[in-house]
């Protein structure tokens, strides 16, 4: 029973609390300070092992002031008895409480005393059990370390490779990979000719895909600007999110350009730009992403979910557009798709890198539940709602491809695969792989720039202001 609550939102319970002047009613969760962890020690005045555990709590309360709260909950005795217990054993820094309902501690599986529960800053139960199952301070340190990536980090304002030698190279690799081609450089002349020759089903499919892309970029931007960028305090990560926001704005501009180019009717264009409200298939998919902007979910859960947004929820649509490229159609659309899909692959890779830095990963079943949800939403969107057979693709193979991409994301996150399927499309390279466009045949969709991410031998051809011309 004690283990069952781990990973769940901490159950609440009515408590009596005590100060020097008065006794008042409250609840456990009402005592929580936003953004702080909480350690709860269930005790009884008659318990022989409880004084030592309470004194340990009091020591930790001094060490972790401002980061964690420490609460003593008397499960067998009045608030007066709890107060006397604290006074007798020199407890000065812990919050002293007593349960109102003697059955309330059962929600935490309390069967012996002392019993300790560690609640993460997210409000989820991280550790729960007796003195053999929860070890302080080690378990508390592990929970706080999990949040180090997002909590303020004093004296860490400098981006430095020396501080994070294992990750700085990866951050640099990702941050130099900026979309180098703006929307205005995409040639849409042939697209206009191809568009009028597409049948009604193909046009319907592309319209919905572009509508979702335009809406989803807004969701991703909102999450980055209002949540992740303000939560994360690692300088390298914040720098990356700055680049990502710029890239997402370029994507948004590109989708707007494509919609304006293909859709001539002003009212239909407005419906596409407002697709979350006007197109049920787009609305359902967008709502799945929006639900993970709720801060009641832990940072780790939201990080995995938005990795799934960019790594899974785009996969079927990207694949379908690559299928158009295979057919030699819509070169402007397919080239922009090549660039943007590579961006989104990098963003998902970065989320996986950041997740790997968390010391306490999510339980595998929680990660699997998130990824399964993303796969089902994408399958319903691309195979059922839009019906990918409109552009000549097999629904069963498309479902398998989405599952294949999801397994790849799980592997990058460090978790086991769910589906165990192969890539059904031998012509479909994974989004994050390097393109093989010949530079002299077409503008290259590669990220690598002269002198950046290049080997020593490449530096000979790098541009230099010291060269003689």
From TrEMBL:
GO terms for molecular function: antioxidant activity; oxidoreductase activity. Residues 4-152 form the Thioredoxin domain. One of its GO terms (biological process) is deoxyribonucleotide biosynthetic process. InterPro entries: AhpC/TSA, Ferritin-like_SF, RNR-like, RNR_small, RNR_small_AS, RNR_small_fam, Thioredoxin-like_sf, Thioredoxin_domain. It comes from the Eukaryota. It holds the Pfam family AhpC-TSA. Belongs to the ribonucleoside diphosphate reductase small chain family. This is Putative ribonucleoside-diphosphate reductase small chain B. The lineage of its organism: Eukaryota, Sar, Alveolata, Dinophyceae, Suessiales. The gene is RNR2B.
